[in-house]
Amino acid sequence: EVQLVESGGGLVQPGGSLRLSCAASGGTFSTYGLHWVRQAPGKGLELVSAISGDGAITYYANSVKGRFTISRDNSKNMLYLQMGSLRGEDMAVYYCASGPEFAYTWWGQGTLVTVSS
Amino acid sequence: QSALTQPRSVSGSPGQSVTISCTGTSSYVGGYNYVSWYQHHPGKAPKLMIYDVSKRPSGVPDRFSGSKSGNTASLTISGLQAEDEADYYCCSYAGGYTFVFGTGTKVTVL
Question: What are phi and psi of A74, to 5 degrees?
């Protein structure tokens, strides 16, 4: 079974940067697309960014386009999200998620990003 | 991409059935048979309960069922139990590598 473990969250000032990581184990990592999904306080789930298995195709929500960069290293079974120009509305729990079909079968436990001065 | 519309809350007594609706558009929900549902307890990772509109992953009780008609998908929980109290989110494949989530529904067991 695939396991996903996020890291890298923390407190950052508005306008600052942070890099999230997601370590995957237990599956054929390069086979699956990988996604970052976030939940802001009191809000619902939101797809932030996604990347194809080979890294060739990426997607960004309009709210983060131009500020966030998703990448993956299949040799290390790692997924990353480089976040820049952070805003208060980016404060959320960020989940790494994936699945073999058109659903999120596997989720990490999440990492909290707090944006505050 | 706009979020799919779900009722803010539904409730039922133990043993009863509740149904959560998820309304999208012909582009989402209506356009693909790739609707999934997630159970989310606060502080925990979301859990896949239904995929491909009506399929249950291994280990999910058959009390949970999904369906779709036109642009609206539904999740029904039969024989409601205390541990079913959680937030539930629908999600539709939206093309490419993208998905769109519903607004979320809080299920309360009375």
Answer: -65, -20
Cα gap B70→B86, rounded to integer Å: 26
Which residue of B99, B100, B105, B106 to mutate against A (max A Cβ within 10 Å)? B99
Nearest to A102 among B46, B47, B93 (CB): B93
Q: Is A46 on the interface with B (CB under 8 A)?
A: yes
Task: Give the pLDDT confidence of B21-53 residue by residue, as tens digits.
Answer: 999 998 888 989 999 999 999 889 999 999 999
* Closest-CA distance of chain B to residue A68, Å: 16
Measured in degrees and rounded to the nearest 5, phi and psi for residue A29 equal -55, -45
Query: Hey, which residues does A103 pair with through a beta bridge?
Result: none
Task: Identify which of B72, B70, B85, B82 has the alpha carbon closest to the alpha carbon of residue B9.
Answer: B85
Tokens 């549902």, residue located? B37
> Cβ contacts (< 8 Å) between A105 and chain B: which residues?
48, 51, 57
Has residue B1 got a pLDDT over 70?
no
